[in-house]
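U., I forgot to send this yesterday:
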Amino acid sequence: MSGENRLPEVDQIAKPQDQAKADKYFVQKAEKMHAQKGRKILALKGKNKLVGLTLVGCVLGIYSYTMFSVRQGKMMEAFDKIPE
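Result:
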């Protein structure tokens, strides 16, 4: 059973030109896969930066709105305490 699933052994000494072609093929295939993976990672990095900048913008907007409204509330309290 284990003999059926095994790949045939390659005689590297008998046909070196065939071995070189096979090596080139697998190297090219690996390079293509590596390039595809790199493109996917770059796309994800761009999306992550966009999401991060959006979140930072939201946080800064909420913070600045809160500071503005607190400052305005203090001013309104000052106007309410008019001396007689």
